[in-house]
Structures are given as C-alpha cells and as structure tokens.
Amino acid sequence: MLIANVSPRTMAKTTDTAWLSHALEEDEEQYDVLGYDADHSKQFHNWSKKAKGDFRFPVHLQASAQFHKEVVPPAGKTIAMVDCGHSENHPHITDSVLRIADLVILHMSPTGADWERIVEPPDATPFMDILKRSAPLRATRRMPPTWVLLNRTVANASSTGYYREEMTKEGYDVFTTAIPRSEMFGQSLGFPIVDARKTAFGSLVTEMKKRGLLPVEEREEQAEQ
C-alpha cells in the first residue's frame, strides 16, 4: 500500500513521516518500508543517508507531477511512505500522489494557524477540495481515505480536543493517537531513529491496525487442549 503524508505548509510532516516509517518497520507485523521523498526540500531523503539518519530502508527522490505514472503502490505488507511536498506550494505533486494513495495522513498541530491553512486558506485551495478533485482521476472514483494526525500537542491542553472536534466537523476522521510536543522528535532531524515503536508512533501503528488501515497477517488461534 501507499501512504501519502500531506500538509499545506510546514506542520512537522517530514518528522512524523520518518518516525512513523520506523515504527512500521519495528512493528510485530514486520512491515517492509519504502520511502519516497516527493518534496523539493529533499529533507526525508537527506535524513535517510548513512552519514545522518542511516535509515534501514531506502528513500527515493520522487518530487514529480508524474508521480502516479512513475510509482506503483506495493502489495502485501510492503508500505510505501510518501513525504509529499506542501500542497500550497506544489499542488501538482499533491494531485499526482493522491491519484494512487491508499491512505492519506494529514499532519497538523492543534492551532488556529494550521486549521486555517487546511480549512480556510486565504490564497489557496481548501484541502478537502484537493481531496475531492482527486476522486474522478482515481481507480475507485472516490477520494482516498484520509485521517488527521494531530502533532506537537501539549499535555492537558484544551486545544487538542478542540481541534479534534473542529476537524471532525469539517468531515475528517481524526486519529485518537496524538503526537506530543517533544524535544526528542523536534530535534531528531538528521539523526538515527531508535525504538520508534516505544513512542506515540508505535501507538499510532497499533491504532491504524485496529482500524483496518494497515494489512495484518491473520493468525490462527491455538485450539484449546
């Protein structure tokens, strides 16, 4: 499957993508991860290099408006993780990635600024409209399943619940798992990622499996003796 990680602007998308990729690889399901950097900043790709993050999976440069023609979503338990260019600046790349995405994760912080950029941008297309316009170009003729991931959240802050509700009102599904504001995450760019499954990203993978958003191997229950 192919997971598109998207945001209109800088919203910790690349950091989330890298940590979630590692949590997937470390999970008991033993997912194989392929990375695609569809952002001209090349941060995901550069982070993966041996001299920096030394990722255990490849990250391919793929910032192209022809992404849907150049990449084939993998089957089975191989997950293609795409760090998509900001939709405000590179809508053509976003449109192309959405044509073949099996799942879209929309990254945002629970702030008025991020909400506005997604829902009511003053000089750009609302993200829901971007999703809807992808539908006629997809094999399913429906927009891709899309879930909001709240990040940079503060413990016990009312903003998390408030913006969870606001995004639900706008028609989005929102993960129960939220990514807390943390120096470990915020300062991790360019360094190796270790034990991602023990963080909130591991909890996110568990939630995704329970919601049927990830392929899970069927295990036969042992018969009682």
List its traits.
Rossmann fold, 33% helix, alpha/beta, 16% strand, Plasmid partition protein, P-loop_NTPase, seven-stranded parallel β-sheet, single chain, disordered C terminus, 225 residues
Summed up:
By secondary structure, this protein is an alpha/beta fold. It is built from 9 helices and 7 strands, in the order βαβαβαβαβααβαβαα.
Task: Give structural notes.
- The chain has 225 residues and is an alpha/beta fold.
- It has one domain: 3-Layer(aba) Sandwich (Rossmann fold), CATH 3.40.50.300.
- Helix content is 33%, strand content 16%.
- The chain contains nine helices and seven strands; from the N terminus they run E-H-E-H-E-H-E-H-E-H-H-E-H-E-H-H.
- Strands 3-2-4-1-5-6-7 form a seven-stranded parallel β-sheet, sandwiched between helices.
- Strand 2, helix 2 and strand 3 form a beta-alpha-beta unit.
- Helix 4 packs across helix 6.
- It starts with a strand and ends in a 15-residue tail after the last helix.
- InterPro entries: P-loop_NTPase.
- This is Plasmid partition protein.
- It comes from Streptomyces natalensis ATCC 27448.
